[in-house]
Structures are given as C-alpha cells and as structure tokens.
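Quarterly update, task 2.4: PBG-bound model.
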Amino acid sequence: MVRETRVTPDDLILPLFVVPGTGVENPVASMPGVAQMSADKIVEAARRAHGAGLPAVILFGIPEQKDAGGSDAYQPDGVVQRAVGALKTALPDLAVITDVCLCEYTDHGHCGVLDGEKIVNDATLELLAREAVSHAEAGADIVAPSDMMDGRIAAVRHALDEAGFSELPVMSYAAKYCSGFYGPFRDAAGSAPSFGDRSTYQMDPANTDEALREVELDLAEGADIVMVKPAMPYLDILRRVKDRFGVPTAAYQVSGEYAMIKAACERGWLDQKRVVHESLTSIKRAGADMIITYFAADVVKEL
Ligand code: PBG
C-alpha cells in the first residue's frame, strides 16, 4: 500500500538482434541467454514474450554484407525491414521499435559516413532519414535514432512527414554516453569501430548539464520520447531529465549491465531474480517511464 514504485510488464521493451536466413540462432558469447536470430526465430521469441505480457520489442539488424555507406540499413528488403514485416503480420498488437543507426551496417563500425577518419555529420543525416523512412514503410511503430549525430531528429522527423508518416513517433537516444558498457553489444552486432572510438559524437560520461541540452534540442526537433543510456550508471541523469522536461522518458539497461549481472549470477555471487527486479525498480524510481532491457522476457513472466 505504501510502495511508491512498481515495475510492470507495460514498462518493458526487449531488444532483439536480427540476422538473415531462417532457423538461425547464434548465441552471443558475452551475453548468456541472448542470441542473434533470423526473422522466423525472432517471431517465435516475440510471440512467447508477448503472450506473457511484453508490449514492445526493439530491433537491431546485422546484415550479410557491410559496406562504407551502410547500405543495407535503407533497403526495402533489408534484414530489419523483413523482420518488421514478419512481426507485424504475426503479432499485430506487439509494438515494433527499430533502432536507426549505421554502425551495425558499416564495414568500419562507425555510426556515420567517413571522410578519411572523420565522421561526417551532415552527410550522415540523409542516410539516417532514408533508413527511418524505410523502417516506417516496412511497418515499424516507432523509430529510434541512436547515432548521436547533431540534427538527426529534425532530419528524421522531416523525412517521415514528407513520406506520409507524420504520426509515427520518434524515440530519441538523446543522452547517449560514450560508454564502456556497450562492449557486449558490439560483439552481438559486430559493430566495434575499426579505429578510434565514438567520443566525437557520443557524450562524455562526466557531463550532466550537456545531457539536458541534448534532450532539449531533440525535443525542439520533434522527439516524442527521449532516452538516457546506459541506465544504472546514469540514474542521476534520468532523474534530472524527467524532472526538467516531464516527457516520456526511456532508459536503456545496456549489454554491459546485463553481462555484469549474468556473470555474477552464474558464479552464484548474486541472486539473479532479486537483483534484476531491484535494478529495474531503481531505474523506474529514477524517472524512467519505460526500460529497454535484455531481461524483459524473463521479467514479464516473473511478474
Ligand atoms: C548503435 C547502438 C549501440 C547500442 C544501441 N544502439 C552501440 C553503440 O553505440 O556502440 C548499445 C546497446 C547495448 O550496449 O546494449 N549505435
């Protein structure tokens, strides 16, 4: 009766890694319990979780071929586009969110196009906008740009409006830090940068006022939902963002947060169910309205 915070299945979003083919299920070594899956396997996994009460998934595509411009990202028959179609046909009530970025599709692993070793902001915007529109055409319910280029929310919003998707929501990875906790994801998506790091476009972990400026800009450009990422090391940022703007706010409990909990639980050092629920409660308590977590399928069942 006096509990202030309650995590419910409605809060949770499950990330899924899509690969080409059928019947494919490749376990991700650094993320026990997570696998890259072909679209048919994604539908099966989503059906089980949705049946238990999961409202939404977010898709990441790993294409057969990567190239300098990340061209599979915006093909009508790209790996994500086909998975979106399969999911929306099989499970029309499941919300399908797509991650909009180039790093899973580029052979150099950066989130934008290159000029030598420089990531070119404005040339990247056009490709991200094409990618978002192609996800919308495939049937995505929400698009989620995660690249951290400047001006990308305006570019994506404008392109969606022009293409007739003026009501499609944009979930912006607004305060996305340049974090070591993304390590296992880069295994899962094969997207580790081939040189340098992402510190010219992702945020310095030391900054908090800057997070508010990033969120403010994205809202001005048309974001409907803003995200703070990672989650647990950045609970103070979540609280500031929620207090300042009061808009729908998402938090991403990232691959490294998942891997830490899993590794300790496998050794018997932590009690998985207990610490997973505690971690999600802390993220919600800090201000998140929704949480992207690799534990989502387990948690909806436990709840
Ligand atoms: C793509 C993207 C990343 C994650 C989500 N979208 C990787 C990165 O920025 O390096 C990380 C998710 C996770 O670690 O679980 N830009």
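Highlight for this quarter: The longest strand covers residues 12-19.
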